[in-house]
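Below is one protein, fold included:
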Amino acid sequence: MENGKWKMGNQRPMTNDQGLRTKDQGPIRVMIVDDHHMVRKGLATFLKTQADLELVGEASGGEEAVRLCQQLQPDVVLMDLVMPGMDGAAATRAIREHRPEIQVIALTSFMERELVEAALEAGAIGYLLKNVSPDELANAIRAAHAGRPTLAPEAAQALVQGEKLERLAHAIVNAPPDASTLPALLREHVPGMFSNCGIEIRIFPDQTLLHHPADGPSAADPMWKWLRTTSQTHHFLPGATLPWGGKRGGAGATLAVVPIIGIESKQPVGGICVWRHRDLDTIADLLPVAKSLAAQISSTLHSAQVYAQTLAHETVARELAMAGQIQASFLPDELPDVAGWQLAATLHPARETSGDFYDFILLPDGRLGIVIADVADKGMGAALYMALSRTLIRTYATEYLTRPDLVFNAANRRILMDARAGLFVTVFYGILDPGSGTLHYCNAGHHPPYLLRADDREPIQELRRTGMALGVIEDATWEQATVRLAPGDMLVLYTDGITDAEDGTGSFFGRERLRETVRAHVGCSAQDMQDALIAEVHEFMGETPQFDDITLVIVKEVL
């Protein structure tokens, strides 16, 4: 990013005054990267129709693309982004690092902001959707070869909408914490995100936050009643049967509806309705920004609710008691039931409130987000900081579904904007695919969890830090790492309340004692492992008062 704008690729000298190769210089050498055979076949057929373009190779994945680029040295690579193994952004970065003269055009079916940003940050000179016309694709290849960027209008719109969402987020952070100015902020920022659209935002049962245009029609009451029953986004074209009854008129507007999900209740607390009278087939393109807007509103309402509760405390004792109840409600009421896996978790606060927390976040396609964290302080300040951190991590986890590094980037920025207490929080966040056992994770300065292998062929593996704690510096970054759990393997996550537990002589429980206890119970269930560790810690402490919060999460794949 340069001066607030995305810089696409590295420009190279043009080959002639028009930036195109002459006949004597030969055709532009093109390589195709896509994990779908039919897509590669279609692109190969297209390239054969262009006299100045030559197909020199094909790859079905990122690793193969990097290897072939070293061998074939194409001029331009058409790169899919969403592929198993090494994704397109990672492959683009690797290619550009080793062969900066090779230009990469991201050619994908997706236009989510995070994908666009990731591709451009990796060095792609262009970003196109797969529904691009043959002429547009050919011209983009020629432009890339000449060092000129090409960005699909839909991708540019995603970036612009993302910037507008960021401006709204900044305005909300600087607004009164009771959300009293939220309707005015929505009127100022939201209409520009949905050009040529009408939009209505309501909080149930009957509060209207935004109605734009002011003199425009309102969404039907039966639609709002139905929206209370669904947690999914929907869009309806003219003529579609509506789940709340009737049909869209044949010449009417297209309609998109997005529920606003309560952070604690996990139920719809309001909704967003967007309608458009032209460009009818593009209404689905508005869903990502509408979902992000819904998450912002939900977070704002939740923060206002916490603020109002805090103001209502009449005494310090009542404040502490209420804070403890709120914190307890942040923890999962029950652990997710994941087929083939055992989960166990516990939190023992040292005071009425805690700076520790853990969370399990149900994600699409059966994935499970696993969080354990520790605020570097104690008391009410740490408890409030914990509430803010937990809310932001959960919110961004549902926005960046497979990228824990992007979750940390977004949460870190918001933490630094929202909180000025000089605190920070260490966090481990992993995204588990229960079907494959794959765990993508980032460790933000947290004590390394232990991975125990059932076959006992390897020593205990530590999932070490991949970046610093959240809330320290704004431009911090985190690397994403991956491990795979096999049947019988167990993951032990903990906070320093375990390793720093003291006995009557002032000795610490320590990591080595923790490792020995874990190793001694490697074949037991997740719950038995948790019980054994907690019992060992309390036996070690004896009558010594607990000084720090003790939090433990166990994840095991069943044999």
Notes: The longest helix spans residues 287-311.
